[in-house]
Amino acid sequence: MFFSTTPRLENLRAIADVKLTPFWLDDPSKPAQAPPLTTQIQTDLAIIGGGYTGLWTALQAKQADPKRDVVLLEAGEVAIGASGRNGGFCAASLTHGFSNGKSRWEKELAKLIQLGEQNLDGIEATIKQFNIDCDFIRSGELHIATEKYQVDMLRDEVKESSKYGMKAKFLTQDEVQARVHSSSYLAAIYDPSVAMLNPARLAWGLKKACLQLGVRFFEGTQVTTLEEKRESVILKTPHGRVESRKVALATNAFPPLLKYLRLFVVPVYDYVLMTEPLSRSQRDSIGWHGREGLADDGNQFHYYRTTEDGRILFGGYDAVYYQNNQIAPHLENRPASFGLLAEHFFQTFPTLTGLRFTHAWGGVIDTCSRYTAFWGKTYGDKLAYAMGYTGLGVGATRFGAQVMLDSLAGKKTERTELQMVKSKPFPFPPEPFRSPIINFTRWSLDQADRNQGRRNLWLKTLDVLGLGFDS
Questions:
Q1: pLDDT tens digits, residue range 125-140?
Q2: CB environment 216-233: b (16+ within 10 A), e (fewer)
Q3: Which of 201, 210, 321, 417 is the most buried (most CB within 10 A)?
Q4: Which residue(s) pair with 187 in the sheet?
Q5: What CATH class does 9-21+137-196+266-365 carry?
Q6: DSSP-derived pairing of the beta strands 302-306 and 312-316
Q7: In angstroms, rounded to a whole number, what is the distance separating the alpha carbons of residues 186 and 192?
């Protein structure tokens, strides 16, 4: 399906009254912020970052050793970053989908798929154990072909992935139209290994669980520098400091305290719209009565899902890099992207014309060149880090936290011995080269989407090298 690049006036009216704030964070159940650090303290494990990676690290550290003192430091507040802004797709995949995993770690792919499914089971078990109210539902996800050339690609992927233990199912045009109706849908893969959830409430629930187990939280506390000592690491903040035996760095796309990591992660902005609740007749007009997530199969893809109160979240397509790794609040408001999303929404569902959007927001993603998380240690193995989830961190961060804890404990486990864990992505070039290379890659991906998937020489070169740029 060819998506327009120019929003029509009637579709721009649909976003005229949006609140420029993430829908998930606009919630009266939002918990109170923990106070900042104002003293000097010591601890066994200090965690930098209050997103999913940091929260899962804190929770699992205390579950493994209740006597271990754990401190979590967050520059803003828990879930203010990607953990409270994403679409709420919680996938079992640790490899950013089957094809990416097969191209990089084919020999251990079956094991990675198995570990991913166990990880998703662990997330569900934790949600039940701590009674986290986050609308978790194992609805699955549809990967939709909107161009004829994509149909056979999806059919082949289902056949191939079954050899590695995946349970995906190919849906014909009639079968996908029976689930959700849009004239653009030609076929789909149904992947049952994906759950939907409310991302902010998951983060807040994990925070509450951590507090119950004795984790100490300090929000509004930015770690400015790290200093290594013989048996510990000093974390300096504006009004206090922490001396810790071990440190877990979980800063996602934000500037890492280890400067060399900036070569491996590119902060990319993704934009999202949320509709008002649909009426029964509107819902009937598109036939979408399930809770499964949807994503089209383009290089520049849209992802969308329904909420507990009957809204539709619609995001993706644009993946915007701002020169010099910019991250700033004003970049979360991009009217051009919001207008484009509104146009594409009504192209997909023309029967919903007249529906209004209530919220529009942006968030920054930690993209790396292999699309999956990577890990490492430094400071004499006293500090471990995990980052690079590239938009698939809702589920994979729990696994990422386990790898960090294994590494900090000096354990050789099934996880730490994976080639995926031992290897690193190829670094991105620094500025001034980074911006033109990324922008040319984005242009090339757009041209491939408009040219039956045919990839130009630049994209073919990146494919050979195992490199990429994605959200």
A1: 999 999 999 999 999 9
A2: bbbbbbebeebeeeeebb
A3: 210
A4: 145
A5: alpha beta
A6: antiparallel
A7: 20
